[in-house]
Amino acid sequence: MSRCPGRKSILYTKTEKEKHISFASIRLMICVGHADGYIGNREMSRIHELVNSEHFTLKERQILMDDMDYPKRPEVILEDMVDLTPTEKLVMMRKLYHMALIDQRLSLQESEAIRRIASMMGIPEEKQHQVEEWVRVGIKWRESWKDIVEE
To answer: Which residues of 77-112 are buried (b: 16+ CB within 10 A; e: fewer)?
Structure first.
């Protein structure tokens, strides 16, 4: 069980914590999706897919849909976040990059938004650089396939 910051008397089971993390990560993905000015069709589809794959309450779904039109500041979302382990924070950062790359490109605004969120979550700069490098290597690896199949 894990405590929710700011709410000393509430304990979360593992399942509740996972749902809470999923909900917050989708809200943060929406922030990243809006970082370059708009959410594209692929980003929108991915968010709808994630929302539909979870058992969110009607209220939670309404919040997510409201965020699509009127994204909240990451600070607001992170205020309600459960305590995360260092690994959970890094996984969330990876999910944010995955969302940003859904349209096959990573804008400077999206990168900056992810770095800002990672910093607010308390991910050390060195770990942020490691994740960013892992993402860059992954992009190059994916691009190398084009060289293989092109003749």
So the answer is: bbeebbebeeebbbebbebbbebbbbbeebeeebbe
Question: Does the pTM exceed 0.90?
Answer: no
Cα 81 to Cα 17, 42, 61, 123, 128: the distances in Å are: 10, 26, 17, 15, 19
Quote the CA–CA distance of 28 and 73 in Å, as a whole number: 9
Burial of 120 (0-12, 13-18, 19+ CB in 10 A): middle
List all residues 6 or more positions away from 102 whose beta carbon is below 8 Å from its beta carbon: 40, 42, 43, 46
Give the integer Cα–Cα distance in Å for 38 and 16. Answer: 31
* Phi/psi-derived region of residue 13, left when phi > 0, alpha when psi is between -120 and 50, beta in every other case: beta
Distances (CA, A) of 83 to 6, 11, 30, 97: 10, 11, 21, 21
Q: What would the pLDDT profile of 112-137 be if each residue is shown by its tens digit?
A: 999 999 999 999 999 999 999 998 89
